[in-house]
């Protein structure tokens, strides 16, 4: 698999996941012009767009994406919140397939009606990826996952420090605690997760104020898995060599 990060963070999220020559757009939370430019105006082989929830940093371009002829997959709650009605809109209640991909939506926790994460499996290469963002924890554990694309939003100590110094408004605090993944919670999640098949962890949606430079090292040290922070780059996801 290959991952192209178009944008990651609270000001916008969009990723292109490619496997066996076909691609899925994950989120479309930046201007459509920007998506087009970053994809070199090439939408060939894009099978669809998966949306986790309705916040604009994930869904900003959804009407353009639909209008451009790309099928979009999301929960009913997300579709309702975005007031979408389009023949290319699909409600993702259960497992579905897009060509070589089998996609299983799963519930996450966020301050919206019906947020989702996605387990993505390539039937040809047998690679499995978990995509989860905007959630303070994961309810589920998944077997034989090769790659995690997972939110690592903030550090509790850094957040408290920012509140004390007035960088972050106190009212933001509870919202963050209940709706985004904190680094120590993520480490805790991985501690009790079987990572024997895991080859790469990609940390996404870092907060610009409340994250710190050592996130990559902390997750890599805690898990022993090659870890990268998403920031507009191309990432090779490979089973071998490792
Ligand atoms: Zn977000
Ligand atoms: Zn959100």
Automatic annotation (TrEMBL):
Gene3D superfamilies: Ribonuclease Z/Hydroxyacylglutathione hydrolase-like. SUPFAM superfamilies: Metallo-hydrolase/oxidoreductase. One of its GO terms (molecular function) is hydrolase activity. Keywords: Hydrolase. Residues 11-170 form the Metallo-beta-lactamase domain. InterPro entries: Metallo-B-lactamas, RibonucZ/Hydroxyglut_hydro, WalJ/YycJ-like. This is MBL fold metallo-hydrolase.
């Amino acid at each position: 698999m290959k991952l192209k990060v178009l944008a990651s963070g609270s000001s916008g999220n969009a990723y292109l996941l490619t496997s066996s020559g076909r691609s899925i757009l994950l989120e479309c939370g930046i201007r459509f012009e920007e998506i087009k430019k970053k994809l070199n105006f090439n939408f060939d082989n894009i099978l669809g767009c998966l949306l986790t929830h309705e916040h604009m940093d994930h869904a900003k371009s959804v009407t353009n994406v639909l209008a451009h002829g790309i099928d979009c997959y999301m929960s009913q709650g997300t579709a309702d919140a975005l007031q979408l009605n389009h023949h290319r809109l699909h409600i993702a209640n259960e497992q579905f397939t897009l060509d070589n991909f089998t996609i299983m939506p799963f519930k996450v926790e966020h301050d919206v009606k019906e947020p989702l994460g996605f387990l993505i499996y390539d039937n040809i290469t047998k690679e499995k990826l978990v995509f989860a963002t905007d959630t303070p924890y994961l309810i589920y554990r998944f077997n034989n996952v090769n790659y995690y694309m997972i939110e690592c939003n903030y550090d509790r100590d850094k957040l408290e420090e920012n509140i004390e110094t007035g960088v972050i408004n106190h009212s933001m605090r509870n919202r963050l605690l209940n709706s985004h993944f904190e680094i120590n919670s993520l480490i805790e999640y991985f501690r009790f997760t079987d990572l024997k098949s895991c080859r790469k962890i990609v940390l996404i949606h870092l907060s610009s104020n409340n994250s710190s430079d050592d996130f990559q090292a902390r997750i890599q040290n805690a898990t022993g898995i090659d870890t990268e922070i998403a920031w507009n780059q191309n990432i090779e996801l490979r089973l071998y060599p490792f």
